[in-house]
Structure formats: C-alpha cells, structure tokens
Amino acid sequence: MGETTLLVTAERFFRALGARGRAILFQLPLSVTMLLVTALVIILHPGLEWSQPLLLGLGAHVLLLGACAIVPWERLPVRAVLVIPILDCLAIGLTREAADEYLAVLGFLLVFPVVWLSASRYRVQVVVAVLATILSAVLPPIILGTGFDNADYIRVVLLPVILGAIAGTTYAAFNVISLQRRSLEQRETEVRELLAGSQGREQLLGAVLDAVSVAVCTVDLQGRTILTNHQYSSLAQAVPKNALAENSSETVYGRDRESPLASEQTPRSRAARGEAFTDELIWTGSGTSQRAYSATCRLIKDPSGNRSGAVMAFADVTALVEALAVKDQFVASVSHELRTPLTSILGYLTLAMDEDLAPDLEDYLTVISRNAERLLGLVDDLLATATDALHTNPRPADLAEVLTHSLEAARPRARAAGIALKLDLEPGLNLTGTFDPDRIRQAIDNLISNAIKYTSDGGTVIASACATEEHLSCHITDTGIGMTEEERSQAFTRFFRAANAHSSTVPGAGLGLPITKSIIENHNGTITISSIPGKGTSVALTLPRTTTAAPSTQSTP
C-alpha cells in the first residue's frame, strides 16, 4: 500500500510538471554532468586546447537545455520532444570528436539520451536510440572533417551494441515497472472499492441493528463485546448495573425469577462457549425493578467454518410476561368459580337419576349429565394449565399396560369414526419403569384422542413403544391431515388450534397438547412432534425409566 501511494504521488508530480517541465527534468542530468565534466577538465587538464568545434559542442548542450525550457512542447505532438535526446547524441559525439584523447570518456554520456529514448512503452524508440548512437559516431568525423581511423570504426560497431543493450534493458525495466505500477494501481482501486463497500455494508448493518426493537450485542470467543446497537447502549445507560453487560456483578435469574443463574449459565457465558439458544427467559434486577428478557443467541462462523463469535438479542418482555400471568390468574379464578356450581349440578343430577323417572326424562338427564361432566373436565383442564397443578405420583408401572388400556378405551370412538387402532409392541419387550401411570395414561389418551379427531374415515392410528436401559419411548402415529411447520411450532401453546380445526367441526379447546407436555416434563421427559401436511402426524414421548416427582411450581410464561 505504501509503495502504491509513493508511485501514485510520483506520477501525479510528474504529470503536474507539464510537457515543458518533463523535458527539462530529462535533460537536466546530462547538462549538469556536462557542466561538472567541463569544470573538472579546467582543473585537471589546464593544457587542453579549447578549439572552436569543442566550444560549439559545449554550446550545443546549453542550447538544447534552453530549447527544453523555451519550446512550447504542450502544443506539439507528444513525441516531438524526442528530438532533444537525438540531438544530445550528436552534441556528445561532436564534443568527444573535438576534444583530445583525454576526453574520449565523454562517450559514456550517451547513456543519458539513450535512457531517455528507451524509457517508453514503444519499441520503435529503442531502435531510434540505437540509430542515434550510430549517428553520434558517424556524423561528427564527417562534420568536422577529421576522417575515420581504426578507433572510429571500432566505435561505430561497439557503441550500438553496448548502448543497444542498455536501451533494451531500459525498455524492459521501464515496462516491468509500468506493469507493476498498473497492477498496484488496480489493486489499490480494488482495495478502495472493497473498503467503500465494507464501509457501506457497515453503515447498512448499523442502520439495520438500530432499526430493530431488540437489544443486540455481538461478542467474541472470550465473551468480550464487539458490536452493539443503539437499543443495547440505551439499555446499559438506563440500568447502570445492567446484568446483561460485560463484567457485570449483578445477578441473572432463571424463569422462576428467584433462582440465580450460575455465571457459566448466563447468556454471555453460553454464547462465548458456542451455545445457540432461542427465546430463553431470564430476569434481571430485584423487587419492583425486576425485568424479564427473552434471550436468543446465534453463532458467527468464519469462511473456514470455525466459530468466531456470537450474536445475542435481548427483547424486554416484562409487560408480556406480566400480562400472561394476569391472564392465567384470571383463567384460574374463573375456572375455580365454575367448578363449584358444576360439581353441585352433577351431584343433584345423580340424585335425580336415582329416582323412578320416565324414560324420556331419564334420557334428557343423561345427556345433561354427560355434557356437564365434559364441561367439568374442561374446567379442570383450564384450572390445571393456569396453575400448573399437575402433580405426579411416580411408582413402578408398565408402559405396555398403559398403552393397552388407552387403546381399549378409545376403540369405541375409533370404530364409530371408521378408524383402525393398532398396538405395535415387540413380544417380551420390557417396558416397566417408575412413573405415574395415571398421568401418563392421561397424556396418551390426549394424543390418541387428537389422532382420532384429525384422521378421516378409513385412516389408521398406531401406538408403538421401545425402550433402552435408561429410557422408555412411546409413539402415537396417525394418517390424518397433518400440520404445517408453523402449526407444529405452536402446537404446545395454550388455546392454540390449527386453522383446519377451526374450519372443521373438530371439537376442542387447544389444551390437550399443553397438558400432555406438562405431564411429560413433570416426569423429566421430552415430547416431540413430526408431521407432513396431508400425510399424518407422529408424536414421540420419552421418559426416564426412573422418575422422581417434579415439584409443582407456579408457571412463568
């Protein structure tokens, strides 16, 4: 970069001189050298005869320097100035021929005009330089009438050869330097364009980061801050001891707002270790100033695929979390208030049905009782999801028995809908473990019920299971309508129902899958859904063989 700048600066200076200035610049070395030679001859060779031809030769050099300064070369063709180095060759030849044998070395001065002529991208100028050296050896003896001797003949042969080699070398060196200069200029242009593009992308990136409504922070492999947006900077200024900032001593809390996260579990530490996560709920601060943030992290990789850092995004979701908590509180309160009168209604219906009633009236009461029980079950589900009151009682149980009982209970409904229920278990497979069979059956009942709901007449629902030394797994697979990617991502959201469920007569409140997920998570297990629209859905449950009761806590959305 420095060499390129130096070359560009020199070229700009050279062009700024103009044609006249460049002519003087090229002629000046020869004129100064000739002046020094003349001064040294006066000092070292006082007996030299200063003949008229010698003085004329020296005067020619003065006239040529003056011509460089006087002639308006800008108005003439670009290569018109080359007449000067050609005449220089003749002037040097005249000076050498007019002097005695002590000044034969003046022939070396031919290097200056030869270099001037050869320093070009045109090869013809090399030929002109060689011809000029021949003329410098041939014309002076003719002009001065001194005739030719053996030394002159040798000079006519050797000068073109030697100076031709110098001319060729000069031509090659000049073109190599020119090529390098053009290459450097091209690279400099490319670097400038890349720099301008990089600056433009940096400005665009800054504008994009400042336009988003979340706080963004980029960190390196050590967790040090590299880049932040305006929202993150504002967050750091608004909270002097922001727990999300670098080297903060403030505590970061988990979802329950009370359990402090270990330093290695904070978002910044996890990002530095190379963990990617999405919508992790954390809390910072204490008391009434406590704030909730949804933290997301994505890793940054270099062109080689190696991790080079991470980008974290923090969205303030305090208002949303508080709103969801109020919603759950409202649902819990309403559900509790509804449960009491429904229990009373069912109790009196039972007493009424024990009486001797007319057949029609007994049928009416049966329908009322069935729907009241269904409504009570829905209220219980609402209350359970709102309060997270899904207690588990793990004990030795057999998952095969749970699956068998769930399928047998669902067969009448499946038969009425024209759906085949199948149990796929390997003979002799050990599916015993420690879990709450009642809750797991509730979860499986929900999944089989959903599979029957969303499978058309002639479809199939298959329940299968497998086991390892540490885990039990169960799959409920159907050939129903399936779900889209967006529907799968929201399947465990409370009250969510797929668009095709809304547009059809499929009953439900969108609580079955959330309750099932809560049951499985209370067993420290996992639940996943895979589905292809139009081809069916498969839900996988995985439980540890040994499960301890998970504490029931107030959920924080």
Q: Give the overall pLDDT as a whole number.
A: 79
Structural class: alpha+beta
N→C terminal distance: 57 Å
Strand count, sense and barrel status of the largest sheet are: 6 strands, antiparallel
Q: How many strand elements?
A: 13
What is the overall number of helices?
A: 16
Q: Proportion of β residues?
A: 15-25%
User: Helical content, roughly?
Assistant: 40-55%
The outline comes out as rod-shaped
Order of helices and strands: HHHHHHHEEHEHEEEHHEHEEHEEHHHEE
Helix and strand arrangement:
Layout: H1 2-16, H2 18-44, H3 52-70, H4 83-98, H5 111-118, H6 124-144, H7 150-211, E1 215-219, E2 225-228, H8 230-238, E3 252-253, H9 267-273, E4 277-284, E5 291-301, E6 307-316, H10 318-353, H11 359-387, E7 395-398, H12 399-416, E8 420-424, E9 432-435, H13 437-453, E10 460-467, E11 471-478, H14 485-489, H15 499-502, H16 512-522, E12 526-532, E13 536-544
Helix pairs in contact: 1-7, 2-3, 3-4, 4-5, 4-6, 5-6, 5-7, 6-7, 10-11, 12-13, 13-16
How would you describe this structure to a colleague?
The protein is an alpha+beta fold and 557 residues long. It is 55% helix and 15% strand. The chain contains 16 helices and 13 strands. Strands 2-1-6-5-4-3 form a six-stranded antiparallel β-sheet, sandwiched between helices. A hairpin with a 5-residue loop joins β1 (215-219) and β2 (225-228). α3 packs antiparallel against α4 (83-98) and α13 packs antiparallel against α16 (512-522). The radius of gyration is 49 Å and the shape is rod-shaped. It starts with a helix and ends in a 13-residue tail after the last strand.
